[in-house]
Amino acid sequence: MRCLVTGATGFIGGAVLRSLQAAGHEVVAYVREGADSRALREVERIVGDLGDPNRLALAAAHCEAVVHAAGITDPEAEKDALGWAHVAGTENTLNAAKQAGCKRMVHISCADVTLHDGPRSFWNEDEAPTRPFGELARTKLHAEELVRVSGKKGFWTCALRPALVWGPGDTTNLPRWEAEAESGGVRLVGRGKRLMATTFIDNLTDAVLRALETSVTTGHVYYVVDTELSLSRDFFTELSSALGWPKPRNTGPYRWAFLRAQAGLSSLGPVEVIRRGQSSAFDMSRAKQDLGYEPRVSRERGMAELAAWYRRTREDR
User: Fold this and answer.
1) Would you say residue 49 lies in a domain?
2) 270 occurs within a structural domain
3) Which domain holds residue 70?
4) Is position 230 within any domain?
5) Which residues have CB under 8 Å from 212's CB, separation 6+?
6) pLDDT digit string (tens) for 55-86?
C-alpha cells in the first residue's frame, strides 16, 4: 500500500512512517518547510503545510491511504494556531485525500479530547464531558468530528485516541520531563495518587497498521492504550529510575496546583496539572474488537527500550 504520512518529522508521525516501511508499505512523507527531515533521506518527501490543500492533494496523488499525524502538541499554543493546524489542517487533508482517490484515512487524535477538571475512570468512546478543557482539546475534538463524518462509500475513515504517548524518539514530553528532573525531579500533582493512562509508541503504530487493514464500518473512534494501569507516581518513578533521574517530587494538592496554574503562578500549565492530577483510564474493548488491537509492548520492555535509546542520544550530544 502506498501511504501518505503527515507530520512525518514528529515523534508520532516519524514512528508511524518507520512502522509502515517495516511492514512493507510504500510511504510518502509530508513535511513542513524548514523542518529537520534528515532522518527521511531515503523517503519520498513533499514539502508543504496543512494550509495548502493543493500541495496536500499533490502529496496524496497515487496514494491508497493517508495517516494524518500532524498537529500541535503544546496546550499553551495560540488559539488561532491550534484552530488552523487541527481544524483547517484536518479538513484540508480530508479533502486532499478524497480528491486524490485515497481509500482510507487514519487520523491520530488523542485522549485529551475528553479532558476536563475531573476523573475519566474507565471511560469508553461514548463518554465525554459537556465541553473539554482547553483549546487544544476542543480543536482536536473538532478535527476528530470532521474525520468521523467524512467517511463514505469508497473512503473509509477512523480516529485513534492514544493516551500519554511515550517511548524512544520522544521529542514532545520527554524534553519537558528531563528539564523538570534537572530542576529537582519530575513534579507529581496530588502526590501522584491518580491513575494515568499511557500509550507506548510501538503500541500506537501497531494500532495504525491494524486500522489500515480493517474492514469495519467507517467513522469510528478508538481508544488505544497500554495494558498496564498505574498511578502517575509509579509511572514517573519507573521512568526516572530507568533514565537515571532524581526521584519525582510532590508539588502539593491537586486543587492548589490547578489554581496556581490557572493564575500563571506555576510552570506547569492547567492542562498538564489535569493530566497528572486527575484519573485517566480508558476502555479499549472497541479497538480490540474492531481492529484486533492488542498492546504487545509491556511497560517493563518499553522502559528498557526507552532507557537504551536515551543513553545513546546522550552519548551523541
Assistant:
1) yes
2) no
3) 2-166+197-225+282-295
4) no
5) 1, 3, 65, 67, 104, 106
6) 999 999 999 999 999 999 999 999 999 999 99
The enclosing domain of 162 has a CATH number of 3.40.50.720
What gap in Å lies between CA 4 and CA 56, rounded to an integer?
Answer: 10
Residue 237 inside a domain? The answer is no
Q: How far apart are CA 296 and CA 288, in angstroms?
A: 12
Quick one: cell of 18?
A: 518507520
186/166 Cα distance (integer angstroms): 15
**pTM for the complete prediction?**
0.95
Give how many domains the chain has, as a whole number.
1
Residue 38, burial from CB neighbour count under 10 angstroms (0-12, 13-18, 19+)? exposed
